[in-house]
Specification:
8 strands; Helix Hairpins; alpha+beta; three-stranded antiparallel β-sheet; five-stranded antiparallel β-sheet
Length: 288
């Protein structure tokens, strides 16, 4: 019995012990990498300046680095384990090199996506949680990798956009957003009075403590924006926190409707035009 176990014990004291050390070292490296990137995220949380942007960027880089480190460490550790098991890895590495060259010619699109993803991270073009428009779609960034970016739009549709396909990226979540609200009034409206009411309503909303967190500042009525067929469009502008312009616009519309109702200013009603065609019955020649 002892003779049968002796080769196993010998293997466990030699290659087995080294394999265990390799696996443990790989786990430690991955663990330390996750700790370092996690510390970067926690440090970003304490930054008072541009806290949200810093936190999003740190979280994005953390996820990408964690995945990249795990793949690299796993590949290196797997190769070392195979060598300890007696597998000749030289032909394997040579085969991988040949396959790599062949795949390289056919994977130019993949390489382009990876390089584009790297530059997106380095240049901080956008981060997790940002609302962006790119390649004909828009939505909130839910996931990022070096190859592709995943967006979810307002109706819940998930879009996967390869990073190499991004030519122009419009980020709606950086710095501040601009509110552009067009209010339609009939041609019979006193424009000076309507403008004063709009300015008052916008300033009251900006001063409302319940809306301080939306970053509303500098609301103003720019004046007549457009003369349309059935009404006049007045333009209201303001700065808001990134992505808050839509919520502010909805609340501002509600208050404008209430204020116009109290002040006796009518909102233009939809115009409906009905066209009726009368077909004249043709009678045979000679009939009265």
């Amino acid at each position: 019995m002892n003779g049968a176990l002796e080769p196993l014990v010998h293997w466990a004291k030699g290659p087995g012990l080294r394999i265990l050390a390799i696996v443990l070292a790989a786990l430690v490296v991955v663990f330390l990498s996750h700790r370092v990137t996690g510390r970067l995220v926690r440090r970003a949380e304490k930054e008072p300046l541009r806290q949200r942007e810093r936190l999003q960027r740190a979280e994005t880089i953390r996820r990408v680095l964690d995945k990249a480190v795990s793949i690299v460490v796993g590949a290196v550790a797997g190769t070392m384990v195979l060598r300890e098991l007696g597998v000749d890895i030289a032909p394997l590495l040579a085969g991988v090199g040949v396959v790599g060259v062949a795949v390289g010619f056919g994977a130019q699109v993949l390489i382009r996506d990876l390089l584009a993803g790297l530059f997106i991270l380095l240049e901080d073009q956008f981060a997790l949680g940002d609302t962006i428009a790119v390649s004909g779609v828009s939505g909130t960034v839910e996931h990022m990798s070096l190859r592709a970016t995943v967006l979810r739009d307002l109706d819940g549709t998930l879009h996967v956009v390869p990073n190499g396909e991004m030519r122009v990226v419009s980020n709606r979540s950086r710095g501040w957003s601009q509110l552009l609200l067009r209010v339609a009034v009939p041609y019979t409206t006193d424009l000076e009075r309507a403008t004063q009411i709009l300015q008052r309503v916008a300033e009251e909303l900006a001063a409302d403590p319940a809306w301080q967190g939306h970053g509303l500042e500098g609301p103003s009525v720019a004046g007549v924006e457009e003369l349309r067929a059935n009404d006049i469009a007045l333009l209201v502008t303001a700065k808001t926190s990134p992505g808050e312009q839509w919520a502010v616009a909805r609340e501002l519309r509600r208050r404008i409707v209430d204020a116009f109702g109290r002040e006796g200013i009518e909102l233009p009603a939809p115009t409906r035009i009905e066209v009726t065609r009368v077909l004249r019955e043709e009678r045979p020649t000679g009939q009265a």
